[in-house]
Amino acid sequence: MSDKQAHLNGAYYGPSIPPPTRTYHRPGRGSGCGCGCCLLKCLFNIIITAIVIIGLAVFIFWLIFRPNKVKFHVTDVQLTQFNLTSNNTLHYNLALNMTIRNPNRRIGIYYDRIEARAYYEDQRFDTETLTPFYQGHKNTSYLNPVFVGQQFVRLGADETSEFNEDRVNGVYDIDVKLYLRIRFKLGRVKTGRFKPRISCDLKVPLNTGNGSFGGTFKTTRCDLDF
């Protein structure tokens, strides 16, 4: 009996089972990205929402007002003097008739500032400020800038050669640009100011008093650049 008891006391039951390992997780480390990712996700959602809202607003604006591009034309030109002296002084007398067509039914335009500039061979030789005005819906307005005087222009050998060729042909390549400050009126709402530029590349015949030496002027459409 004692032998059996001793045998039982020395029995082998295997190694002891260790306690389970405890793991600790700190926010913002490991596989998760914490508050930083949440902030970026929220910011991304806000940007997407803003883009969608702006897109819908633009689309609704277009459906309501259906804006059309304003059209600028030079319909007639009178050039009675365009002489270049030996010291590069240009004597000129240039008058233009221009039309501005607003084809929109619901949009009016305030022309708060109109500055007309005349160029020859990229050299500006005169600037005139025209009277501001308001243009209503589906309306055609008229501008009549006049450039008279004399101005020193820096013409190199190539530009002087071009001038002599134009003088022989009786037609001068003159650029007239309008620098505008405008506002749009949509019902009772007025927008902020825009500063478009209008470029008119003209073939201007010289009128000597006995008729035009270089032919007749053709109505020219100008380019609108916002």
Automatic annotation (TrEMBL):
Membrane topology designation: Single-pass membrane protein
Q: Where in the cell is it found?
A: Membrane
Chief subcellular location equals: membrane
Q: Which InterPro entries match?
A: LEA_2 (IPR004864), NDR1-like (IPR044839)
Q: Which GO terms describe its biological process?
A: defense response to other organism
Concerning Pfam families, the annotation shows:
LEA_2
Q: Which residues cross the membrane?
A: 43-65
Q: Which domain of life is it from?
A: Eukaryota
Key words, A-Z: Membrane, Transmembrane, Transmembrane helix
Occurrences of domain Late embryogenesis abundant protein LEA-2 subgroup (ranges): 98-193
Give the record's GO CC terms.
Answer: plasma membrane; plasmodesma
Listed name of the protein:
Late embryogenesis abundant protein LEA-2 subgroup domain-containing protein
What is the organism field in this record?
Answer: Gossypium raimondii
The lineage, from the top, is: Eukaryota, Viridiplantae, Streptophyta, Embryophyta, Tracheophyta
